[in-house]
Amino acid sequence: MKYQSQKVAYWYFLAAMALFGIQVLGGLLAGWVYVSPNFLSELLPFNVIRMIHTNALIVWLLLGFFGAAYFLIPEESDRELWSPKLAYVQLIILLVGTLGAVGSYLVGIHGGREFLEQPLWVKFGILVAALIFLLNISMTVLAGKKTAITNVLLMGLWLLSLLWIFAFINPDNLSLDKMYWWFVVHLWVEATWELVMAAILAFLLLKLTGVDREVVEKWLYVIVATALFSGILGTGHHFYWIGLPGYWQWIGSIFSTFEVIPFFLMMSFAFVMVWKGRKNHPNKAALLWSLGSSTVAFFGAGVWGFLHTLHGVNFYSHGTQITAAHGHLAFFGAYVALNLAVFTYAMPMLRQRAPYNQVLNMVSFWLMTGGMAFMTFVLTFAGTIQTHMQRVVGDYYMDVQDSLSVFYLMRFGAGAAVVIGALLFIYSMLVVRDREIIAPGPAASVPGE
Amino acid sequence: MAEILTKSRARNIFYGGSIFFVVVFVAMTVHSHRYVVNVSTAGMPLSEEVVRGKHVWEKNSCINCHSLHGEGAYFAPEVGNVMTRWGVLDSPEDAFETLKAWIESQPSGIEGRRQMPKYELTDEDMRSLAEFLRWADQTDTQGWPPNEAG
Ligand code: HEM
Ligand code: HEM
Ligand SMILES: [Fe+2]
Q: How many domains is chain B built from?
């Protein structure tokens, strides 16, 4: 850590990890309701649990991105943050908003657009926080050095904040509502967040592998170009059956198929950089998470996304457990694992010590990744059966669900592994030990920075 | 990547291409917006009652259990075609009665069956909700869902 003001990232990461804990516990609870439907049904109905699960996810991922930006921008632009104080104000606004949202959900106050259920004042809070953030990082970069990493990161963050405007636009016409809703949801995870992901990944690989900056930055531009060229028109893969014109079936199928490319490139990029790199960085866990993230993102977003993106397939699979399977692995690989990679990389520096608890951290990687992969497999099986019975044969929804209970039981087991992994990760970040639990092997030849 | 693709070329392609795709996307959005208003949802007027029903739907967060046109949660049945499934699509009165009877019978309390929460809706809310669902059911969704099961 070169600059004092990078320290603000620490508090963002702490808040993010707390919400991560809440998110996975909420998920586990939702998974249990599938197994035992009467559980808590009068006190805390499924829809409320689900809102908490998904909203906590989105907020903590954003907190992680904000923290990552505050951590890497001073280092990239070679100067202190414009205003650390504003960064803390921003964090407080976000935390008040989050607690306010959760509190309102518990007493039954919420909107009714999926993922955007926050009460209006919370939405405004998020907008204000985003503006403070953009001001802060833009002023820092403008006054300092501009690199491809800061360019792309800033562009991603500006665009995703602009898209938040659509969270306020809720037309009375349901089909229009749905169309503009996707401007937030799809154009976040399959366009602007990809810019953020690629920039952060480039930063991590630059630091961890020591590959030449020129090479990293050229890859970065190619990756983000393929992301936007495919992702913008790829929005069409959500426009097939919601009352929009039929031409989206072709536009959506073709362009969203190309969306696999940026994820494939990010995975290749990560492995090629490690292969070319000369540096033997001591933070092995951060490297594991970086490689893991780009690989699982390729499978979750790329492969599982392509699985149901062609309109001929989507006609049958739309809105089944197949969608849930894909949503989980994609979010986990691309955005959860990437954030955990940043935390793993930055935390030792923020606490001013050498990398620690690497073994526990790596165990948590395998627990979480294994759990999410298993969850994805069982939901994919459940979704395949559901698609056949309900969409092809025409059996009623509730009857079909009764025949899927064994998969939901296994999903709960997978979820338990994820929760244990998540708690272990948080423990390994926060509870510092003097020594690794296992003694390291013979010293590596050339240590990195 | 060969020498032809320098970093600054890659950057220019990225900026130029992105602007191009944004422009195309905006144009298609304008067209789609008009198509929705004039064609696909023109089957039934977007009355005040329908709009009110949409707000009832949102206020109760039905979307976090059900799907509507295939979007939402996967915990409970699709409702974009529920009026067809119940055979009441063309009769506002039957739609209202059937919906009211359904909501008032929940939660069922049956052991091992997924529970719908208890909703205390006025008759007016219930009527609007029924109209909203009838309206949604009449949207031209390119033939989706494949069958009545939704
Ligand atoms: C990291 C990137 C991605 C994330 C986080 C993500 C996440 C999600 C989520 C959460 C949904 C469900 C939305 C809802 O509630 O209705 C969804 C739907 C969908 N995704 Fe992705 N996705 C990603 C990338 C992709 C890619 C690259 C493709 C295509 C190649 C794709 C194809 C689809 C399709 C076709 C649907 C609609 C499924 C349906 O019809 O029910 N996704 N995605
Ligand atoms: C403890 C592990 C987890 C369990 C048991 C779990 C369970 C669930 C359940 C039951 C739902 C509701 C599905 C429905 O609508 O019927 C859900 C939704 C969702 N969960 Fe999880 N979850 C877990 C972890 C995660 C993680 C780690 C992520 C992020 C990577 C995540 C992201 C989501 C998303 C995006 C949705 C909305 C799904 C969609 O619309 O497709 N969950 N989860
Ligand atoms: Fe998408």
A: 2
